[in-house]
Amino acid sequence: MQHRTVDDVMTHQVVTVRRDTPFKTVAELLARNDVTAVPVVDDQAHPIGIVSEADLLHKETAQPDPGGHAPGLWLRPKDRARAAAETAEGMMTTPAVTARPEWSLVEAARVMERHHVKRLAVVDEAGTLVGIVSRSDLLRVFLRHDSAIREEIRREVLEHTLYLAPYAVQVEVVDGVVTLRGELERRSLLPILLRLCQSVDGVVAVHDHLRCVVDDHKAGLEPPQTTDTRPFSPRF
Predict the structure, then answer these.
(1) H or E segment at 174?
(2) CATH code given to domain 144-214
(3) Domain 6-140 in this protein, CATH class
(4) pLDDT tens digits for 45-67?
(5) Distance, CA of 130 to CA of 125 (rounded, Å)
(6) pTM (2 decimals)?
């Protein structure tokens, strides 16, 4: 199966700034290019940080309000420093969390989740910036048409991978949710089939309504592959 990679969904033409780019220039670039963040790069085009709208907003938060409340009262020390910054270097979040173009969308999503970031700078083997990928880019895979998902499951999973007869398993896909009906010759194929279906790009969930002719695990015809008895719970 051909899975989409970061390179397939990332923005290739990236708006960047330098360490010494003034605050107002950064704000103008964000507005002019309709983006919410820009990477900060060094002389070799290596990403060293990210400046986002949230970083710029600290400046506004630190301003006195008409009610006379103390400016920046609820800002953390590092955010107060960003509010006082005049250039990208002082405002940016660093280090820049990066991804590689060949990564799967799952890999990129896990790195975002692990580092609690909304976007990743994409770099090549030399660490040079080649793109940027955001959470919305990763979610684009779920815009695949149901018919395309169904066809990939039938062709790539059932026929080319598991060598099942076309009539053995019926595949229904509605809003990305896959429902499988029919009959498998051996129960040991069931977890493999479910896992492969869940890995197809754009699948939201997999519902199993399959029958199995032979319970080869129970009959001792084939040893179980795992001792985990928890029910199957697909995750993206």
Answers:
(1) strand 169-174
(2) 3.30.1340.30
(3) alpha beta
(4) 999 999 999 888 877 665 656 65
(5) 10
(6) 0.74
